[in-house]
Amino acid sequence: MEFRVLGPVEARDGDARVPLGGPKRRAVLAVMLLNANRVVPVDRLIGAVWGEAPPATATAQVQAAVSALRRALGNEGLDGERIITRSPGYLVRLLPGELDLALFERDADAARRALAVGDVAQAAAGLRAALDWWRGSALSDLTDTPMQTLAVGLDERRMATFEERIEADLALGRHAGMIPELTALIAEHPLRERLRGHLMVALYRAGRQADALIAYRDARQVLVRDLGLEPGPELQRLEQALLRADPALDLRPPVTVARAGTVVRPPCPYRGLLPFGGADEGVFFGPAGRRSPSWWPGCADRDRSRCLDHRGAGSRR
Question: What strands, in cross-sheet order, belong to the sheet with 2-4?
Fold first, then answer.
């Protein structure tokens, strides 16, 4: 069974969509899914459906909704019922991998761990995989219920992940292809300063310094007009860096990360020579345990390419 809240609320049994009924039933299920394997009090379910003005029959209607959901969902793959009555409310039982929100968080967390150790390419791919679980705005079929308060929080997590993915793509030199995507995202979310900053950096690295400064001006106009606020310190610092063409804005090569059981060796620094090999390690970096650059003993020439010839390594050309 699959359960989905990152878009319209759905339950699927294989390729078939499970009929859940109207908005009240879907709202009750959504609250339980967002608190999977935990008891949700009846009062909280009532609040999710009717807010602060529930009808006198609210408790009975929630009980009826739960009964209907039990019949629709069944208990396939479980030892016992899918929805359990447990004071002071109900608990929906989910197995690992059944809820799209949990899968999104799993992939996003794995990507952040990759980023923490410098594997930017893996992080970017992982963040894309996390975002692929989304099918639109969270709980998008419950817009006329109090559930929208919860949906806003979920959508914020999606946007934060978008921004992280864009930052990883910028670090990988994908700035030119990202400009249209960033422009579209800003049109949809004009007050997100982090997106504005990413667009400014992408434009600058694409050789469009003037357009990057125009992007800052547009951001400032929107923030002043809509919020009465100047851009935040980070965006202001970025504008100053653009004005002086700060080298810190230039693309830096991503860190290479060794896979388990392998050693990442630096490439040969001299054009025309074969790649750096294991036999060369002691020559370039000194004895084991010492990793500061050095040249061969007895070689007075500081041009290490000629030192190679002194040691008879010219045949490696």
Answer: 2-4, 10-13, 16-17
Separation between Cα atoms, residue 201 and residue 170, nearest integer Å: 8
What's the pTM value of the predicted model, to 2 decimals? 0.76
Please list, residue by residue across 253-275, b when 16 or more beta carbons sit within 10 angstroms of its beta carbon and e when fewer do.
ebeeeeeeeeeeeeebeeeebee
CA–CA gap between residue 72 and residue 40 (Å, rounded): 19
At 292, which amino acid appears? S
Distance in angstroms (rounded) separating the CA atoms of residues 231 and 221: 9
Tell me if 165 sits within 8 A of 173, measured CB to CB: no
pLDDT in tens, 139-191: 999 988 889 889 999 999 999 999 999 999 999 999 999 999 999 999 999 99
Partners of 90 in the β-ladder: 40, 85
d(CA 37, CA 128): 28
Coil, strand or helix: which one is 152?
helix
CA atoms within 13 A on the CB side of 217: 7
Task: Delineate the domains of the chain, giving CATH numbers in brackets.
Answer: 2-92 (1.10.10.10), 174-254 (1.25.40.10), 278-316 (no CATH)
Backbone φ and ψ for 26, nearest 5 degrees, come out as -65, -35
Residue 30 one-letter amino acid: A
Task: Assess contact for 311 and 305: CB atoms under 8 A.
Answer: no
Q: Apex CA 289: angle with CA 288 and CA 292, to 5°? A: 95
Using only C-alpha atoms, what is the Rg of the chain? 28
Amino acid at 253: P
Please name which of 74, 53, 136 lies closest in space to residue 100, comparing C-alpha atoms: 136
Contacts of the segment 78-82: beta carbons below 8 A, 24+ positions apart: 82/1
Q: Which helix (H) or strand (E) holds 184?
A: helix 175-188
